[in-house]
Amino acid sequence: MAAEVFDEIQLPKQRLYNGVPFPLVLSPNPKTSHNSSTTFTEAIKAHKPWLESRLHEAGAILFRGFPVPSASDFNDVVEAFGFEEFPYVGGAAPRNKVVGRIFTANESPLIRRSLFTTKWPRCVPEFPSKLFFFCEVEPGSGGETPIVLSHVIYETMKERYPEFVQKLEEHGLVYIRFLGEDDDPSSPIGRGWKSTFMTKDKSIAEERAVKLGMKLEWMEDGVVKTVMGPIPAVKLDERRHRKVWFNSMVAAYTGWEDKRNDPVKAVTFGDGSPLPRHIIYDCHKILQEECVAIPWRQADFLLIDNWAVLHSRTSFTPPRRVLASLCK
Asked: Model pTM?
């Protein structure tokens, strides 16, 4: 039985939605010995249906206290779940591969506020359904990963701004971003077009952009303008039979800023009309009010259903190293 392996515990500031904890937090059952990464991965395989049902119910599961000391062990955990890998092509944030299916989480510069997105932004037509995060090095201070239920944001925004949400549902959003040739570590969206599309060949980049539903316009000095959309800003989660907030509107409008990009121009309604500033910032406030900030401990890992949950990152005092894996 799953209870022989997993013990449900509580987290400070954990929320309850219809009696379901958010996030669900699991730790080792103290009466059962799973003190090696090998026995733990076997336990995951044996109880995968139960874990998936709990993920469907809660939207996110934090695993705390399990024997996952290294990136290699984390890779074994991801493999044990058996989800198909999702390649990181087209994303904005700079990342580096670590081992197997594992790469660094968003390595963009520290920011004062948390900008909710999916870190695989909800501004592309293809996206992972599940995300894993792993704390390899615990932050000196700060560095939490705030998470929030997408359907709660949709329902709150629809109640507060019904006409705005109606227009979003009718027209969707367009995202515009200017990429340099190479990665720019000083930028929060500093991934260059060569690493974004995993090629140095412009024609291959264009082919891969088309598959992502993205248009490219080549500029001077090796810069390329990317246009994504219109794409939906609200989607129907068919498994849970509810609409969800499925966009990177706030992140783009308030955070896509560097020497090439103006965040206010980075996202518009699908018809090209500008977004109302006061609503964007109020949406950001709602995200902050509804979120649960996950405080990382070394060897924690977090499994997120990307349909159900938005996530972010807060500023921190180094060191901090969080790794990630994306799954179809």
From this structure: 0.92
